[in-house]
Amino acid sequence: MYKFVIRPIVFLLDAETAHYFSFTMIRFFSKIGLGLVFRKLFVVNDKRLEREVFGLKFKNPIGLAAGFDKDAKLYNEFSDFGFGFIEIGTLTPKPQPGNPKKRLFRLLDDQAIINRMGFNNSGVFDAVERLKKKHRVLVGGNIGKNKVTANKDAVKDYLICFDALFEHVDYFVVNVSSPNTPGLRELQDKKPLSDILHKLKRANIKNAQKFAKNEKPILLKIAPDLTNEQLIDIIDIVRTTKIDGVIATNTTIARNHLKSHLTLAEEKGGLSGKPLTNRSTEVIRFLSEKSKKAFPIIGVGGIHSAADALEKIEAGADLIQLYTGFVYEGPSLLKQINKAILKKES
After folding, report:
1. What pathway or pathways are given for this protein in its record (predicted)?
2. Which residues of the chain, if any, have pLDDT below 50?
3. Catalytic residue check, 178
4. Any known ligand binding at 302?
5. Number of neighbours of residue 72 by Cβ within 10 angstroms
6. Cβ(329)–Cβ(280) under 8 Å?
7. 164 known ligand binder
8. For residues 138 and 151, what is the distance between their CA atoms, to the nearest angstrom?
9. What angle is formed at CA 107 by the lines to CA 8 and CA 332, rounded to 5 degrees?
10. Are 170 and 90 in contact (CB under 8 A)?
11. Which positions ≥6 away from 56 have C-beta within 8 Å?
């Protein structure tokens, strides 16, 4: 129904308008009690799907990637579609509008999306107020820096977000890999990245003591455009900083072998969807093999089918996340993936 009825109607709208329209409809459906219907249609409850990763117990290995529910508005509602965890953000200390519109584009011929949103969000403290309600699902907090913050001061922004969210999320993701904030990817270099992660680790210990809670897992989200030498650096950084894992990968700035019209394909921003499938899997496999599975990996990028998901898992991903595949394929994709995992494990 989604692909043949709902998607064609929604895709008549501008991509960003469609995103907010979808939020409005999901909120409405939830308020009138259709969340229960969604759960019956899409949720697969089976103990064999449970995963324990970096000390957290996930109902299933499929998460919603950051960027979809930036401001933590519908994390409980999205769990009705069968997600085992929801990642909110990217959040910054101060609210910011993001880049000028038009900034979100569908590449239908490639089953892809280009975005240059620019960390548009209402600010971490606004999100915290919504995160105070009871969670029906594990929630990750993806944190970044404000556009106006110089890279030399970036760690301050990450620390503000970390401290504000500590009591309200189950794990953290450090986003230094979005291509849509000028200079942000420079923070992936070994020295500045190590500095940020070391200071976040110290903040983790401090907050755990302050609130008499366990430390929260900290993960690093990396770009698919890193070279093998840079990926080796990432492995070394994870080892030396003792963070808990890696999310591979963010969107790409590459524009290889796209079928869409040249004018559309050359829009600036991060590309996600099917064109990213192979590269993200390559990065997962490289990290897993070269590190000898020394840390957990969340695989994301171009998962549009159960086969894509299984390929990521076989390459070394402990968990996976959806974004563009969820937009193109709809919530039935989650059920297909979970059933495929159960079939493979039976």
Report:
1. Pyrimidine metabolism; UMP biosynthesis via de novo pathway; orotate from (S)-dihydroorotate (quinone route): step 1/1
2. none
3. yes
4. yes
5. 28
6. no
7. no
8. 31
9. 50
10. no
11. 138, 170, 171, 217
Annotated binding residue 249:
yes
Cβ neighbors of 315 (< 8 A, separation 6 or more) are 281, 284, 285, 288, 299
Question: CA-based Rg of the chain, rounded to a whole angstrom?
Answer: 19
Residue 121 annotated as binding site: no
Q: Where are the alpha helices (DSSP H) in the chain?
A: 7-10, 15-31, 35-42, 75-79, 124-131, 154-165, 190-211, 228-241, 262-265, 277-291, 306-315, 324-329, 332-345
- Which pLDDT belongs to residue 346? 80
Number of H helices, E strands in the chain: 13, 13
| Strands 112-115 and 104-107, bridge-based pairing | antiparallel
89 is in an annotated binding site: no
Compute the distance between CA of residue 70 and CA of residue 158 in angstroms, rounded to an integer. Answer: 16
Instruction: Assign 99 to helix, strand or coil.
Output: coil
Residue with tokens 């970044």: 144
Greatest Cα-to-Cα distance within the chain, rounded to the nearest angstrom: 55
- Domains of the chain (ranges; CATH) run 2-345 (3.20.20.70)
108-157 confidence digits (pLDDT tens):
999 999 999 999 999 999 999 999 999 999 999 999 999 999 999 999 99
State pTM to two decimals. Answer: 0.97
Q: Among 178, 280, 288, 291, which one carries the catalytic annotation? A: 178
Tally of CB atoms within 10 A around 99 = 19
Q: Is 151 annotated among the ligand-binding residues?
A: no
pLDDT given for residue 1 in this prediction: 87
Q: What pLDDT score does 92 carry?
A: 98
